[in-house]
Amino acid sequence: MATFIDKAKIKVISGRGGNGCVAWRREKFVDKGGPAGGDGGRGGNVYLVADENMSTLLDFTYKSVFHAQDGENGKNKNCHGQGGNDLYLKVPVGVIVRDLKTGKVIADLNENEKTILVAKGGRGGRGNARFATAQKRSPQFCEPGEASVERELELELKLIADIGLLGMPNAGKSSFISLISSARPKVADYPFTTLTPNLGVVKKPDGDGFIVADIPGLIEGASEGIGLGFEFLRHIQRCRFFIHIVDMSASDPVANYIKINKELEKYDSELLKRHQILVLNKKDIVEKDKIDNLKENLKKYDSDIFIISCATSDGVKELLNHIFSLVDMLPRFDIEIEVEHDSDFDNNDDSEFFITKLNKNTYSISGGKLKRLVAVTDVKNVQQIRRLSNIMDSMGVWGRLRDLGINNEDTVIVEGVEMIYTDNYF
After folding, report:
1. Of 51, 97, 205, 390, which has the fewest beta carbons less than 10 angstroms from its beta carbon?
2. Model-level pTM greater than 0.85?
């Protein structure tokens, strides 16, 4: 059986865009061939895809850094570079994705094949053929490709199960799930046999199926981190209803039942509103008088009561028929996960910009379009710097700075690139 891992931290890196090319068309009998540098290819994106065939995040413990393919550089003869291949990472259905830098939840992959873009590939740089105009027929520059995007993410799995099994350790949950499904959890006559959640698929008479989750180690104080229950209580939040198994041979079965429900309420009060089937187990070793008294005492808490023996299978068939009817009747409970807007993929083509005066002689300028332009500007190339300056002038950046009283030799920082302001130059 694969090790159950329900939390993982990974780093994803999108592909870098390929650089544009500076090239010239030189062919026999072709006069003034002109620029012929091709564009770079775009970098590959990184996606997360929910896959119902996975049930653990174990794969992400062996490898935690994932890199999409970079785009190819542009070539001569107007040949464009090939785009990088996108990277699709499969995760179990029910995974919540959190950005570690901001702490915000950016996705809830609660459906099979649901896909989320988590790192966008860099745009390919344009070759010099793109910059030829009637006035500037021989551009000596191209654009570098956009840089890749690096993100650190936390993956947290909340199992998508139809039914959750509740009960104190050694109540018979593992035995029950092994009776009704093909799951084969470890079964023994001592507490805490089950250390990780077990999933079992139960087939209905019509051929359809549903998933039952055995949540281990739920004891008094579990909601405060005592024992194992706190680690796995998240896995019952999406269940349609619960099957609460009580060991009738325990010293105080009623008190155990109450303790479990109190822990549910402390962890999430909404869980107590979910329907529960109360199953009294170990009928084969408990006297009939005790069973009758126990059933009578528990009626005031729950009227949906079944008495079974997992050891002999007595009463299991009747309980299973009742479960089939409830699965068809009760809808799956979809917990509300507040997903934040992923600002990393905002449209960067807007012309809005912001100016901040850092000190007497220094101004900082930022904005979506400027960020994109600076990313594909070769700061060592005078022609590209002049082109960036012209675009900023058409956007009204320099006019706004002059209104703010900028002087010659003042420093202007545009998305991390420093310039010295000069009236004659700009």
Report:
1. 205
2. no
